[in-house]
Amino acid sequence: MVAEPLHRERRAPSDPPDAGSPDAGSRDAGLPDTGLPDTLPPGEELCAGPAIRPAQAPWALMYHSVDEYTEDPYRVTVTPARFARQMAWLHSCGLRGVGLGELLRAQAAGRAGDLVGLTFDDGYADLTRGVLPVLQQYGFSATAFVVVGRLGGHNVWDEGPRKPLLTADQIFRLHDCGVEIGSHGMYHRSLPGIAAETLAEETGRSRELLRDLLGEPVGGFCYPYGAVDAAAAAAVRDSGYDYGAAIAHGPLTGRWALPRSYVGERDNGLRLRAKRARHRLRGLRVGLDGEGAR
């Protein structure tokens, strides 16, 4: 069900793994390569706002659900205890978790050295239980990407266990606590190759509905399954977003396809440190392969 625009007084808020790697079981892991062009179409420009070179893409972590579980075929769930330890490790390293919008603004101002992006795809209801208290404990914030046409529903795009999604009231609570709310599309459709009108609904229409819900502009879009091509990136840009969140480094890496590191239940401090280093190396490799700033 599509959330009806709500009007109320708003107070001011007070990577996918390589194939064959230990994390390759993530549902999103194999999808970013589908539909990804080697080069942009002639005349296609994806530079709007400050451009970001692949080697400059800031480090951001990609989560989905934080909850207890017995079955998790797509490896999208991290237990609350593991999540708390991961946030404690970031804090012990002198890092502060923030939403992607804040991260990009800080980077543009030269103040992002001690920041890491925290993102949560799909908008699961457990964000209010397993995530928000831990963020508040450390003074962190984050970005939650919600499926606008499924608010208060379930993850019907998956064949695995059903998980409840955030309601409008839960979104208001997260927003009031400083969590950035971004769009994950209308119905969690993979965007490469879809019809133009469907692409416009997933990007532009979802932003309009979420803007009406929150009463303020929506800056971030996250590509379902991490799948992005030049047409999808252009649609996100043209819909008025400030950035697009992808997963893998690739030909479109930049403001409209920001790479993120997948985080799973097995990721301890050592593995997170390795993923941070891998993020930097991949950015350098893409840059050396001749990709410019986008």
Q: How would you sum up this structure, described in words?
A:
The chain is α/β, with parallel strands linked by helices and 294 residues long. The protein has a single domain (54-288), classed as Alpha-Beta Barrel (TIM Barrel). 31% of the residues lie in helices and 11% in strands. The chain is built from 7 helices and 10 strands. The protein has helices spanning 80-92, 100-108, 127-138, 168-176, 196-214, 230-238, 269-288, and strands at 60-63, 65-66, 77-78, 96-98, 115-120, 143-146, 180-183, 220-222, 243-245, 261-262. α1 (80-92) packs parallel to α3 (127-138) and α5 packs parallel to α6. The chain is globular and about 45 Å long. Mean pLDDT is 86; it is low at 1-48.
Helix content: 25-40%
Radius of gyration: 17 Å
CATH fold description: TIM Barrel
Inertia-based shape: globular
User: Average pLDDT across residues?
Assistant: 86
Q: Write the CATH homologous superfamily.
A: Glycoside hydrolase/deacetylase
User: How far from one another are the termini?
Assistant: 35 Å
Helix/strand/pairing category = alpha/beta
pLDDT under 50 segments (min length 5)?
1-48
Largest sheet: 6 strands, parallel
Tell me the series of helices and strands, N- to C-terminal: EEEHEHEHEHEHEHEEH
> Would you report the number of β strands?
10
Strand content: 5-15%
Name of the CATH architecture: Alpha-Beta Barrel
CATH class: Alpha Beta
Count of domain modules: 1
Number of helices: 7
